[in-house]
Amino acid sequence: MSSLFAVALWSAACASPPMLAPRDAQTVDQPTPRDATSADAAQDATALPDVATDRPAPTDSGSVDVVDAANCPMIVGDDGTGLFPSTCNCIPNTTRACSLGPRSVAGVGACRRGVQRCIGSGEVGRWSDTCEGGVAPTTERCDNMSDDDCDGMTDEDCGCMVGSTTSCYSGPAATMGMGACRAGTRTCMAGMPAMYGACVGEVVPRTEVCSNGADDDCDGMIDEGCTSMGPSCAMGPMVESATGRYIVVANYDGGRAVIDVDRAVEFVGVIAYEPVEVVITGAFASSVRRVHVVGFNSMTAVVSGVAAAIVERAGMPMATLTDPAGYPRMVCASTCRGMPGGCNTLAQVLDYFDRTFAAPRMWWHLQYNTFTGVMFTVSRGGCCGS
After folding, report:
1. Residue-range definition of the domain harbouring residue 89
2. Looking at 17-21, 313-317, 338-342, which range is the least confident one?
3. How far apart are CA 327 and CA 336, in angstroms?
4. pLDDT tens for each residue of 189-209
5. How far apart are CA 325 and CA 269, in angstroms?
6. pLDDT-derived band of residue 317, with 50, 70 and 90 as boundaries?
7. 3-state SS class at 346
8. Which H or E run contains 6?
9. Which segments within 35-160 are labelled E, that is strand?
10. One domain for residues 145 and 200
């Protein structure tokens, strides 16, 4: 291309465009507004979705339903208030009532309706996957007094309420509460159904034992057929049980009793009508954890050799064993062979301390006369002195 031709082309390209004459403003064609009621207007109105008009109306509860149940089935519930899957659309920040079970259980027993929330921002959100506050039916439990399966019945099919107790006695009914016999307790154990466990603590009739001064066979008579109600002091003291944890010294006239604790023993029981003094001594005196004194003048009892904090002066409490031959309160002991003459029977004395210490007995000693500085040795035992 020649240089002259190139210059000619450049000149043409850079030339000013031709000027157009201005149009008269009165002659400009303006768009004519369409009638909103016309078919054309209706067509225009539907050309683009109006988000505001596409939104569903709130329900009576203030919540909204923005899904088609046919295309977005509920995953729980059968009454229109179950949970919608989290893949379903909704209007953000709206809520709807929900339940975790059928309509028939809502509000029954432990079952409760809850709230499902629409989460997200903008125009469209997604339903949460939880029904807040909703309580669904569960397997019936036997330990909470609640209608867990929401069928209108509480703890049905449960044999008992877990943890509850009931009295039990396997001996002849006429012997319960007679002599040494007493009822026990059964405790309801967890399970389906819950059931009561074994009878614990009952005492049923047994063969009469001549060394304990008790009505063991629960026939209303104490040590019947026995020539002696306990070891006679003429034969020397005796230890009833080497593994026992407490001893008892008892009389009517009170006095001064010295107890040589030459082997460990935890509890010491004392009963007397007249004022009594008890001296705890010996290599194992520190093993004594509790001294319990009852009787007519027990509030004035003097106990030494142990800390004052472990000494209990109990006055005249009610006897724990009803014995027609004895006294209804713990006042004194007088004999282990015949009628106590207004005092407690040996059976009452032993039953009272058995229950007070809730421990096995090592031995007991009973006499009518005054303790005149008599020495009781734990390892040797006690006897029936009157």
Report:
1. 62-151
2. 17-21
3. 14
4. 877 677 888 899 999 998 877
5. 22
6. very high
7. helix
8. helix 3-13
9. 89-90, 95-98, 114-119, 125-127
10. no
Are residues 93 and 142 both part of a single domain? yes
- 29 compared with 107, residue with greater pLDDT: 107
Q: ∠ CA 49-50-54 to the nearest 5 degrees? A: 90
Tokens of 79: 């009454």
Domain assignment present for 179: yes
In a domain, 320, yes or no: yes
Instruction: Tell me which of 86, 118, 151 is where a domain ends.
Output: 151
Answer yes or no: do 134 and 194 share one domain.
no
Same domain, 90 and 199: no
pLDDT of residue 74: 58
Q: Are residues 250 and 357 in the same domain?
A: yes
- Residue 14 belongs to some domain of the structure: no
**Same domain membership, residue 308 and residue 196:** no
Q: What is the pLDDT of residue 206?
A: 87
- pLDDT level of residue 128 (50, 70, 90 thresholds): confident
User: Cα separations (Å) of 303 from 13, 255, 258, 293, 357?
Assistant: 133, 12, 10, 9, 18
In a domain, 366, yes or no: yes
Closest CA to 214 of 251, 187, 240, 188: 240
240 and 334: one domain? yes
Do 162 and 81 lie in one domain? The reply is: no
What's the pLDDT band for 72 if we cut at 50, 70, 90?
Answer: low
What gap in Å lies between CA 243 and CA 126, rounded to an integer? 74
pLDDT tens digits along 258-281: 999 999 999 999 999 999 999 999
Place of tokens 């309160």: 329
Total domains in the chain come to: 3
Rounded distance between C-alpha atoms, residue 56 and residue 176, angstroms: 76
